[in-house]
Specification:
Layout (H helix, E strand, L loop, with lengths): L2 H4 L12 H13 L4 H6 L4 H11 L5 H7 L7 H14 L3
């Protein structure tokens, strides 16, 4: 089973999650270098699992990103642009 199999397919775009909610999970993933699966298993909250899944999408290829975020009701170019904006905002 791959990491992608356990991710929640987000229903929100990067720009629809407040920075204050993204930042702690970004820090755990990219500063503390904790694996995404470990983070997913650390919470029972559906909302937090979605945020962790969104954070995991920060460094995947575009095809995987668009496939995983297919439930977000926004055009592909919006999702790609938002990801770049969030990466800059979070210093990634």
């Amino acid at each position: 089973m791959s990491e992608h199999d356990e991710l929640t397919h987000p229903t929100h775009c990067f720009c629809q999650i407040p920075k204050e909610e993204l930042k702690p999970w970004v820090d755990k993933r990219y500063v503390e270098h904790r694996p995404t699966l470990e983070l997913l298993h650390s919470t029972e909250s559906v909302h937090e699992k979605e945020i962790i899944s969104i954070v995991a999408m920060l460094d995947v290829d575009e095809e995987t990103l668009l496939n995983m975020m297919g439930d977000v009701d926004l055009p592909d170019h919006h999702i790609l642009h938002c990801r770049e904006n969030v990466k800059q905002m979070l210093g990634l």
